[in-house]
Design goal:
Keywords: Signal
Pfam families: Lipase_GDSL
InterPro entries: GDSL, GDSL_lipolytic_enzyme, SGNH_hydro_sf, SGNH_plant_lipase-like
Bound molecules: 2-acetamido-2-deoxy-beta-D-glucopyranose
Order of helices and strands: HEHHEHHHEHHHEHHEHEEH
GO molecular function: hydrolase activity, acting on ester bonds
Shape: globular
Structural class: alpha/beta
Radius of gyration: 21 Å
Largest sheet: 5 strands, parallel
Number of strands: 7
Number of helices: 13
Strand content: 5-15%
Protein name: GDSL esterase/lipase
Strand order of the largest sheet: 2-1-3-4-5
Length: 351
């Protein structure tokens, strides 16, 4: 009888231990990338790529501009909330927050950046390598505050959101001559970016990151700014840019498979948002939208950043009717739909 009891006890012990270690609740959301996920770092650096003024943020929790390129919240915020953490992820450079705040969520992203150093140079924003330097600095503060063991646990169990790449093509390769001169074609530039991506993921793995979600390119030919200049196609989506996005995302997906095989304990998901975004753009009314061709801000065709003028009489009344908030960025409602989709399809395994 006693033996039996001990056995039961032992089994239960194993089950409890196993379920705790395998479900490994996410204690923190840690974000790297560009304006698709920047929650306000650019407010604290001298760059033109900023949005810390009205009408940005007009539907945010307190109606204030935050540096998010949106009328409200963006995907890291929605994902953080879905994981039972805060409804917003603070920007690392924001002095209003300290290390105890950042322990449950921190954003290193910078609007305008890319995998390629030459991309972040365009608007003097934070290059990806520097986002990693901030992450190292964060680790030092986390260890000083919580001790080695607790800090390592947070870093290991955190969910890392990485969303980047659009600017490498639209702000850099297709806008400036250098990279097009250097590479024979866009495929070669994609391969160059994939090498940079691999180096980045291996580096954060070495620094302790394990659960990673990467979102690469949207159907970037359907961004209002790109449609506005697509005069010959009656302002339809620029199919060439969408093809590049699909091709690059395919290469990134293969990188994800490779890294999951190569790196022990690595759990990386390819949280591809291309399909859902294309669905929304091509069938806006199925998602409750009235307009997918132009952004809400101003005329919606070119305005973003400083051009998104608080005085513009053209700015829409209800951003929830628009897929895009400005000429380059989704509205809060689109971000929410995309976040819910990504959570259900890719991130639920970490919940
Ligand atoms: C962080 O700020 C909060 C108040 O916002 C304060 O209660 C807490 O003690 C601070 N923590 C550190 C480590 O400074
Ligand atoms: C990007 O710049 C950083 C800092 O100067 C440098 O360490 C890194 O090697 C550069 N990356 C590439 C691919 O040139």
């Amino acid at each position: 009888m006693v033996k039996m009891y001990t056995l039961w006890f032992f089994l239960i012990e194993i089950i409890i231990h196993f379920s705790i270690s395998s479900s490994g609740k996410v204690p923190s959301i840690i974000v790297f990338g560009d304006s698709s996920v920047d929650t306000g770092n650019n407010n604290f650096i001298p760059t033109m790529a900023r949005s810390d003024f009205k009408p940005y943020g007009r539907d945010f929790l307190n109606g204030n501009p935050t540096g998010r390129f949106s009328n409200g919240r963006i995907p890291p915020d929605f994902i953080s909330e879905a994981f039972g953490l805060r409804p917003i992820v603070p920007a690392y450079l924001d002095p209003a927050y300290n290390i105890s705040d950042f322990a449950s969520g921190v954003c290193f992203a910078s609007a305008g950046t890319g995998f390629d150093n030459a991309t972040s140079n365009v608007a003097d924003v934070i290059p990806l390598w520097k986002e990693v330097e901030y992450y190292k600095d964060y680790q030092i503060k986390l260890r000083a505050h919580f001790g080695e063991e607790k800090a390592n646990e947070i870093l290991r169990e955190a969910l890392y959101l990485v969303s980047i790449g659009t600017n490498d093509f639209l702000e850099n390769y297709y806008t400036l001559p250098e990279r097009r001169y250097e590479f024979n074609n866009v495929e070669q530039y994609e391969d160059f970016l994939i090498i940079l991506a691999e180096n980045f993921f291996r580096e954060i793995y070495d620094l302790g990151a394990r659960k990673i979600s990467v979102t690469a390119l949207p159907p970037m030919g359907c961004l209002p700014l790109e449609r506005a200049i697509n005069v010959i196609d009656y302002h339809g989506c620029v199919e060439g840019y969408n093809d590049v996005a699909l091709e690059f995302n395919g290469k990134l997906g293969r990188l994800v498979t490779k890294l999951n095989n190569d790196l022990f304990g690595f759990q990386m998901v390819d949280a591809n948002a291309y399909d859902i975004l294309l669905q929304i753009v091509t069938h806006p009314s199925s998602f409750g939208f009235e307009d997918a061709r132009v952004g809400c801000c101003g005329t919606g065709r070119f305005e973003m950043g400083f051009f998104c003028d608080p005085q513009s009489p053209f700015t829409c009344k209800d951003a929830n009717k628009y897929v895009f908030w400005d000429a380059f960025h989704p509205s809060e409602k689109t971000s929410q739909i995309v976040s819910n989709y990504l959570i259900q399809k890719y991130l639920a395994k970490f919940l």
